[in-house]
Amino acid sequence: MNWETVIGLEVHAELSTSSKIFCGCSTAFGGEPNTRVCPVCAGFPGTLPKLNRAVVEYAVLVGLALNCEITRQCKFDRKNYFYPDLPKAYQVSQLYAPICRNGRLDVRADGEEKSIGIREIHMEEDAGKLIHDARSGKTFMDFNRCGVPLIEIVTHPDLRTAAQVIAYLEKLRETLLYLGVCDCKMQEGSLRADVNLSVRQAGSPPGTRTEMKNLNSFRAIARAIDYETKRQTEILREGGSVLQETRRWDDEKGFSYGMRSKENAPDYRYFPEPDLLPVEIDDAWLNALEKRLPELAHQKRERYVKDCGVSEKEAVIITAHKNVSDLFETLSELSGSPVESAHLVTGEIMRLLNQNNILPEELSPDARGLAFLVRLVSEGKINRNAYKETVEAVFVRGADPEKYIAENNLMMLADDEEAAVAVAAAVAAVLAENPGAKADYRAGKEKAFGFLMGQVMKKLGGSGNPDTARKSLKAALGE
Amino acid sequence: MIIDGKLLEYLENLSCLTLSDGEKERLSADLGEILSFMERLGELDAAGVPERSHPFDDVNAFREDEAGGSFDRSLILRNAPEKNGEAFIAPKTVE
Q1: How many beta-carbon contacts under 8 Å exist across A and B?
Q2: How far is CA A156 from CA A102, A104, A427, B76, in A?
Q3: Are B59 and A277 in contact (CB < 8 Å)?
Q4: In which element (H, E) is residue A473 found?
Q5: SS3 A216
Q6: C-alpha distance from B57 to closest chain A C-alpha (Å)
Q7: Using 50, 70 and 90 to split pLDDT, how confident is the model at B2?
Q8: Where are the domains of chain B?
Q9: Does domain A417-478 have CATH number 1.10.10.10?
Q10: B58 CB near a chain A CB, below 8 Å?
Q11: ipTM reported for the complex, 2 dp
């Protein structure tokens, strides 16, 4: 029997505005408990919310990037629930008229293109953090996160495999980062995904679905999908039925467990939010926002290849993170050499990121210093080894490239008489010290040349010009 | 609309209240009366009145995205029935 997995995603993205959605409290992550709180976000009676204009604009930008229809008159609704993470006892959200609808995001997974339908995007407020203390049996409440603006991006149940889900999430994250509306740090909870999953026999109507929460990394999401697919398939294969419920993933133990049964589905008693006026997006505002849409990753990839002469493979690596493509663009502009900049970013910089355990989103090197080095190497003023060494010094230790090159004598010798003398002396010394290699080369062993060349360059220190050295060595050996 | 035992029990759960038998009886009658009163709205001829979600005609009351205005923590916590100097404290909320 052929089983098919049907998956829909709800992604919550915290918007990177400076202030909260309905009050002026800061949205910065962390902070001592309850220090970014005011009577509005703490739900004090008699307070009134006032909508942050930037939240609407960010939501529209995401909607435009995801090919959505923008709801010209949208409004907020109250979702009532009794849980102390929101002290008002309701969450302001959008049920009846979400700000964006009917979009799509095209992804590539399992070797094929697939268009994932976006049902809607709505704006809402985040909830606070609760810490349950087992010892005292008490719950400690920190309201710093209450009222941090969120958008929830809801797909149609168009996804079929974990690979598609990951491809969708990666492209969504890339889009949000390029738009600059969310920092997408899953470990800090600024991007969170809930997975709705059911299993059915191919061609049958959808089965009963479960919702999985607490998925804090792409890896956890992929593992949770595999686990849940197996679990549901086994139940159905044995003639049982899947219980509709919310399940919590335990990444350490590699399994999920039911949180609360949806038989007793919560009744949120949604109603239109009376404290907030509707939001009307007219043509002028929408046009202005369309103009603000930045170049997105796939558009950058195309341009890098077409206009900058960067290889397709490098363009993919560069655009995987906005920070990396920002660095590439700065380096290209400052050095005037996009191809050399692309080599640096996809080669040395990627190696140094891995080696030093730096995440691409934390990348903030001295771009001016690196661009200076790109210029030197493309103009043939330093050799490749000196270049690599100085890049590492600038990147890892924040060295001043000019000073570093001077102190370590790495500047390539100019093609003047003095340099020619130094090279000739080095060649003569190396040949005198290595008669065996010299004889090997003359006997037709090409490999010996490489060895001798290495010795000459070593003698010259970092400042040797490989072309001059090669010519001089060839000439000396030809005698 | 009749408020029967089942509906009342549902409302009890939703509002996290526990009612005595006497209160249940009184509330059934009370809620029934409130609903009947509200049903009078249905007598109004609303044909030709456009659907709307807010009583005001205004739209777009925004504030600009500027951070500032959080309260001092001691002030925010002052009215809390239980606190520990940095957090509000509530009875345990998970099993």
Answers
A1: 130
A2: 9, 9, 70, 42
A3: yes
A4: helix A466-478
A5: coil
A6: 9
A7: confident
A8: 5-43
A9: no
A10: yes
A11: 0.86
Q: Does any CB of chain A come closer than 8 Å to the CB of residue B41?
A: no
pLDDT in tens, A14-71: 999 999 999 999 999 888 999 999 999 999 999 999 999 999 999 999 999 999 999 9
Q: Hey, is A362 helix, strand or coil?
A: helix
Return the ∠ at Cα A345 (arms to A342 and A346), rounded to 5°. 85
Are A149 and A20 a contacting pair, CB within 8 Å? yes
* Start-end of CATH 1.10.10.410 domains in chain A: 417-478
Interface test with chain A among B88, B89, B94, by most A beta carbons within 10 Å: B88
Largest CA distance in chain A: 97
Cβ-count burial of A212 within 10 angstroms (0-12 exposed, 13-18 middle, 19+ buried)? buried
The neighbouring-strand residues paired with A10 are A154, A194
Q: Is B95 on the interface with A (CB under 8 A)?
A: no
Cα atoms in the Cβ-side hemisphere of radius 13 Å centred on A317: 17
Domain B5-43 sits in CATH 2.60.40: no
**A-interface mutation test, from B10, B13, B51, B60, most A Cβ less than 10 A away:** B60
Could you say which of B61, B69, B86 has the minimum Cβ distance to residue A51?
B61
DSSP type of residue A274: T
Pairing between strand A73-74 and A51-52?
A: unpaired
Could you say which of A38, A138, A279 has the minimum Cβ distance to residue B91? Answer: A138
Contact at 8 Å (CB) between A83 and A121? no
How is residue A296 written in tokens?
């997105």
A48 token code pair:
């009134």
| pLDDT tens digits for range A449-474 | 888 888 888 887 767 778 888 888 88
Closest in A55, A140, A267 to B14, CB measured: A267
The closest alpha carbon to A335, from A366, A379, A375, A365, belongs to A375
- Considering only CB atoms, A26 lies closest to which of B67, B86, B88, namely B67
